[in-house]
Amino acid sequence: MSNIHIMPEVLASQVAAGEVVERPASVIKELIENSLDAGAKTISVEIRRGGLAQMKVTDDGCGMGPEDAMLCLERHATSKLLSIDDLFEISHLGFRGEALPSIASVSRVKIRTREHDSIEGCELAVEGGVMHEPRTCGTSPGTSIEVTDLFFNTPARKKFLKSEDTEAAHIEHQVRLHALAFPTVRFIFRKNGQLCFDLPATEDARLRIGALTDSDTASSLIAITTQYGPGVTVNGYLLPLSETRRTRKGQFVFLNNRPIEDKLVTRAIRDGYGGLPAGMHPSLYLYIDVEPALVDVNVHPAKREVRFRRPTDVVTSIIEAISGTLASHSSKPSPTPENEGIQTSCLCKPVPTLETVAKAVAPSEPGTANPAIAPFKTVTPIKPIRPLPPTQSRLNIEPEKKTEPSTPFPFRLIGTLRGRYGLFENEEGLVVFFPRAARERIIFEKLMGARDHGLPGQTLLDPILLELDPRDFTVVNDLQDHFEKAGITLVPFGQRTIRVESIPPMLELSDAKTFILDLIDRITHSEFSKKASKLAYETFAAELAQKSSRMEKLDLTHAIPMLKELLRCEVPYCTPSGKPTLVMYSLQEIARKFGIS
Ligand code: ADP
Ligand code: MG
After folding, report:
1. Atom 11 (ligand 1): residue with closest C-alpha?
2. 322-373 tens-digit pLDDT
3. 535-566 pLDDT, tens per residue?
4. Which residues are CB-contacts of 264 (< 8 A; sequence separation ≥ 6)?
5. Which end of the chain is more exposed for a tag (fewer CB within 10 A), N or C?
6. pLDDT tens-digit profile of 211-238?
């Protein structure tokens, strides 16, 4: 093939690569998928320097003959001539069969492969999409694909990559995902020459999960009672509510053995658990099998989106699998290490003393007794799972809004400590209240409540003028929407001046200027700085809440209304960053200190 034919080919592949090969982890994903498609029983992944220097995936799958090996890299060459229209078409078809040519167009690829009944293997090298002569080689049956110098010829893409450690972490995540999806395949992962894991093949997904997590997690897994719906089967393992997280990092969902991230499924999971506070995500390993004809997994090759032909069946099956499993689990007689986590919702991982408070103040469900006034027991009774409403409305279960306007207030203020802490007593003992942390939580939840409509700002009589560093100025400009939602009106003028015209009235600040400057400092010169202009509103709100609560004057004369307001929050017992707002000393604990048993 002459260069003149190869060039448009390479360019087209590079365009395709932009979609398929976002980062080293995308290469690993494609290579592992190919190995799995080839029927591999063992897959070994080796990476160096976050995959940028080297990535190598070796399998014992069916291997390829020399012709196939050449063909798999040349698919473009055999297809029709590439025009812009064709490219558009391809992007809509999801670049089927384009992974290897795409990878080869932005790196140096070496393939060594041998079919099982062949006496010798074949080695092929491609650099930036240009193929070298294939040659025979000695190699074991299967395929080994080595990718070096990723993005060597597309420096612009390389700039988008994060640190080597971050890229390595993404790769490891990919390998773990596939290892979870295919427990029957042995997975070996090496990073910079060091073995990270070697997972033996097993028929039992629980063993694989255990090998990838820790023994605590493995022993608290609750097997899902298999749910069979029309064309759908749902299986897997749940973790107790105590393992509910602020992120979806504990959620692993596989559709026909492919890891997926799908909004519909995420929603169904929440609904299956019933009434979780906003922002909290249950941990689980969910294996969904859907008849291939009923699902399109090829919506986008690099993303894990899917399109269900009969979404309601899938959603209903997931909800029923989860709620049914939780219900039968919670009706078991006594707490065992497996089910003791499913008690009242202690949703963040608090220190033990906080846990007791958390149980006492956890928001109650409508129609049930308020646990805040229930007598304290060392072992909280297992909460019965709320019966599910009829199927139609199940899909719309939102975290419940508290309907009861005035909840009983089982706390009595008995004093203050050093002007810093409020001291309350309740039926269980002494509750130490930290107003600063409480304000942080309250402000955060108000800001989050305003994420759609925005908070009204209070116009400042004297607008504040801020001179900013040009880089900070840009970031602040990019984040104007967030500020506006939070009730802070910023008007930029010139190259670096910002006029602050309003701040939200809920902030009781004596020095608004220092507060705004501190906030800007924090969001521009922190760990977010690289991505500062893309900061999520939630993170922004958490930072704002923290900064303003620290700037506010502590006024313990308002301890009671403040605690009441805190208890109306979705997650009252900790700040957005997980610090306690209340610490409890139970009567038993105090008695024990005095040697009274
Ligand atoms: P696709 O997987 O969509 O077919 P790829 O570009 O990922 O496209 O792979 C092209 C072809 O190369 C595959 O269809 C397969 O025939 C062959 N192939 C790739 N990797 C392997 C492997 N590890 N073992 C055997 N064959 C492979
Ligand atoms: Mg493939």
Report:
1. 72
2. 999 988 887 554 433 333 333 322 223 322 233 333 343 333 333 333 333 2
3. 788 888 999 999 899 888 888 888 999 999 99
4. 308, 311, 314, 315
5. C
6. 998 777 888 899 999 999 888 999 999 9
Residue 214: helix, strand or coil by DSSP? coil
| Distances from the Cα of 345 to the Cα of 274, 340, 365, 455, 570, angstroms | 12, 12, 11, 30, 11
Give the residue, 140 or 363, on which the prediction is more confident: 140
Residue 15 gets the label, from left (phi > 0), alpha (psi -120 to 50) or beta, of alpha
Which whole number is the average pLDDT over 62-69?
90
Q: Which tokens sit at 66?
A: 């020399």
Neighbours of 288 (CB within 10 A): 28
Cα gap 435→555, rounded to integer Å: 8
Bridge partners of 222, per DSSP, are 238
Q: Is the pLDDT of residue 380 over 60?
A: no
Looking at residue 191, its amino acid is K
CA of 64 to the centre of ligand 2 (A): 14
**Ligand 1 pocket member 62 (CB < 6 A):** yes
Q: Which residue has the CA at smallest separation from atom 16 of ligand 1? A: 72
- 557 sits in the region (left: phi over 0; alpha: psi -120 to 50; else beta) called alpha
130 Cα: distance to centroid of ligand 2 (angstroms):
20
pLDDT tens for each residue of 23-49: 899 999 999 999 998 999 999 999 999
Residue 276 near residue 342, CB atoms below 8 Å: no
Lowest mean pLDDT among 11-20, 57-66, 324-333, 360-369: 360-369
**Mean pLDDT, range 149-178, rounded to an integer:** 86
Helix or strand or coil: residue 538?
helix
Rounded Cα distance between 418 and 163, Å, is 46
Closest atom of ligand 1 to 34 CA is 20
Average pLDDT over residues 504-517: 84
> Across-strand partners of 124?
111
- The Cα 100–Cα 16 span in angstroms is 11
Residue 535: CB atoms within 10 A of its CB come to 19
Q: What is the pTM of this model?
A: 0.57
Tally of CB atoms within 10 A around 276: 21
- For 449, residues 6+ apart whose C-beta sits below 8 A from its C-beta are none
Please tell me the total number of residues recorded for the chain in this structure. Answer: 597
Mean pLDDT taken over the chain: 78
Q: Give the phi and the psi of residue 466 in degrees, each rounded to 5.
A: -120, 130
Give me the amino acid identity at 38: A
Q: Which bin fits 19, alpha (ψ -120 to 50), beta or left (φ > 0)?
A: alpha
SS (H, E, C) 419-463: CCEEEEEECCEEEEECHHHHHHHHHHHHHHHCCCCCCCCEEEEEE
- Cα separation, 406 vs 414, whole angstroms: 22
Say how many Å lie between the CA of residue 139 and the centre of ligand 1: 18
Contact 28, 167 (CB under 8 A): no
How far does residue 64's CA lie from ligand 1's centre (Å)? 9
